[in-house]
Amino acid sequence: MSHLPDIDCVLIGVNCSKTLGRCIDSVFASGYPKEKIYLYYVDGGSTDRSIDVANAYDSVTVIALNPEYPTPGIGRNHGWKQGSSPFVHFLDSDTILNPDWLKIAVHAIDKEEQIGAVMGLRKEMHPEHSIYNWLGDIEWNGPIGESSCFGGDVLLRRKVLEKTGGYDEFLVGGEDPELSRRVLRAGWKIIRLDALMTQHDLAMKTVRQYMARAFRSGYGFAAVRKREAEAGSDFWKYEFQKIVIKGGVFMICLIFFILTIFIHPSSTTITLGLLTLAPGTAILLNPRLFKVNKFMRENNLNKKEARTYAWHCSLVVIPQLFGLIRFYWGLITGNPLKNRRNTLTTGLSVSEI
Question: Which of 22, 94, 264, 307 sits between 20 and 30 A of 203, alpha carbons compared?
Fold first, then answer.
């Protein structure tokens, strides 16, 4: 490249005052020329000091929205439509941009006109602070090279956004993969580079947070899978079926076992119930029973770590199943899942970074 192009960096957040400042600082501290970065912070209706934090930077354009039910797509679309640079980089407010990333990404996307999106590696800042952060660190990244989807941190050509219409503003989960699929169907490529893009702080400390995240991921799987099935695509078909089969069979067996105990408790019915529960449990625990060695090889884990990860892979389908059910219940009743501003917040894994 003879020169570096302008980039619009779009940050979105709701109640993210704890992390927003360091994210903005990381963008301006990058190796990319500051005069070529146009930074937009789109606030989804914060009740904390997020807008004040962003307004403290003269070089940040603050877009304060007040939707009744905020979604990532609403924020991202308002951000990229505000700018005019040929490239748009999206970031979540709980990330820190790698100083070298923007130059690396622009160089990669400029190699071929058909490359519509470029992403790198996302790493957790503090995987040692909770098992949930550690699990997130394992699962953020996919294979290097051409990819089937991107996440919330990504560099896109503006004309890709213009042609596809940008993000689905209705989705509360899965909005990034959903746009990815439309990008691919429009004829562009998505590339994942073997380079650090962002550091992320999942800041997950409780089982309740873990369950809520898994529930929402199940909802996202269902929402995106429905759209992909209508488009004739097999994307996420396996993941969808895995949730239905593993989680569904186990829950049916468990319900049957509970009913046999309460309706007609006897040694015979309890034995019958246990016999029914056993295959469902075996299906649910397939990763823990049979895939520990596979996880050791593929994720570079020791045996103890692989066992822990296998338990996660086995049990996460239960809250995901309920998320999937919630999606279809919303379709039937006309009451889809909606984000409420007072429940959205971004925290830190540690009190000071």
Answer: 307
Q: Please provide the average confidence, as pLDDT, over all residues in the chain.
A: 93
Amino acid identity, residue 205? K
Domain with residue 41: its CATH number is 3.90.550.10
Query: Any bridge partners for residue 9, and if so which?
Result: 39, 89
The pTM (predicted TM-score) of the whole model is 0.92
244 & 195 share domain: no
266-303: pLDDT as tens digits:
877 778 778 888 999 999 999 999 999 999 999 999 99
Q: Which long-range contacts (CB under 8 A, 24 or more apart) does 159-164 make?
A: 159/86, 160/116, 160/117, 160/186, 160/188, 161/80, 161/88
Q: Which of 5, 27, 1, 299 is nearest to 153 (CA)?
A: 27
> What distance, in Å, lies between the first and last C-alpha atoms of the chain?
36
SS3 content of the chain, % helix, strand, coil (to 5): 55, 15, 30
184 with 257, same domain: the answer is no
Q: What is the pLDDT of residue 344?
A: 66
207-243: burial string, b at 16+ Cβ within 10 Å, e else: eeebbebbbbbbbbbbbbbebbeeeebebbeebbebb
Angstrom distance (rounded) from CA 49 to CA 51 = 6
* Separation of alpha carbons 187 and 127, rounded Å: 37
**19 and 150, same domain (yes or no):** yes
Same domain, residue pair 91 and 187: yes
Across residues 215-234, what is the average pLDDT? 97
On whether residue 227 sits in a domain, the answer given is no
Our count of domains for the chain comes to 2
Q: 251: domain range?
A: 237-343
DSSP string, 41-102: EEES--SSSHHHHHHT-TTEEEEE---SS--HHHHHHHHHHH---SEEEEEETTEEE-TTHH
Question: Per DSSP, which regions of 230-328 are E strands?
Answer: none
Element (H, E) at 2: none
